[in-house]
Amino acid sequence: MVPINPTHRDLLGALNAGNPSTRLKAALAAGTHPDPGLLGELVARSAVEPDFFVRDMLTWALTRLPAEITVPRLLDELASGRAQARSQALHTLSKIGDRRAWPAITRALLHDADDEVARSAWRAAVVLVPDEGRAALAEDLAAQLGRGDRAVQLSLSRALVALGDVAEPALRTGLASGDPVVRAHARATQRLLRDPDAGFAPDVEEAKRVAALGPERAAGTSC
After folding, report:
1. Quick check: 61 and 42 in contact, CB under 8 A?
2. Which residues contact 106 (CB under 8 A, 6 or more apart)?
């Protein structure tokens, strides 16, 4: 373990300060002058940091360290019982882009019960997946069509679109689903895949309304 010098102690104190501006400046300093001795604290702070901008700066600071020491430490975090620890580790792995991390992107993470962990896993997966695994990944992602709110669904659609044409067969399975929400999400994703400028169509919400009210009642309320 690399010893912490007095300068590090000051920086570690700032990373844990009550003021988010102080923490942000400390994370910036850690990335500006990358030092392996700070790895453990940067990862640990990422797991609990409440401020989005500070978390983003912590991720940047971690990407400035050598991947050969950072990636193994982040992989350890994927087994954490803390959802934010898993999510931030996945996010940082996606930014590092070291494909040696791909085997750690398990189905359990892709289907994590916590939406933020799952979204981070989807983003990391499409960055890290080898070419021969893209079709299987598309099937795994498409199995979650209809999950969550609009933000979650948009994240899933973007991940599928990032995989390109290999996502088409998986989307056809979604289009044949008996669940109207799944079908609507599949249609919206297919449109994005064919035309990235089309935007994420709101018919997913309409499908939810139809599923809740039934086709006849839904038609009556739209008059």
Report:
1. yes
2. 78
Q: What is the mean pLDDT of each run of 10 residues along the chain (223 residues)?
A: 59 90 95 93 96 97 97 97 98 96 96 97 97 96 95 95 94 93 93 79 55 48 41
Q: Are 146 and 179 in contact (CB under 8 A)?
A: yes
Nearest to 177 by CA among 189, 168, 164, 186: 186
3-state SS of the chain? CCCCCHHHHHHHHHHCCCCHHHHHHHHHHHHHCCCHHHHHHHHHHHCCCCCHHHHHHHHHHHHCCCHHHHHHHHHHHCCCCCHHHHHHHHHHHHHHCCHHHHHHCCHHHHCCCCHHHHHHHHHHHHHHCCHHHHHHHHHHHHCCCCCCCHHHHHHHHHHHHHCHHHHHHHHHHHHCCCCHHHHHHHHHHHHHHHCCCCCCCCHHHHHHHHHHHCHHHHHHHCC
pLDDT of 202: 45
Cβ atoms of 92 and 122 within 8 Å: the answer is no
pLDDT for the residue 12: 86
Please count the other Cβ atoms lying within 10 Å of the Cβ belonging to residue 33.
Answer: 12
Q: How many CB atoms lie within 10 A of CB 57?
A: 23
C-alpha 58/C-alpha 9 separation (Å) is: 17
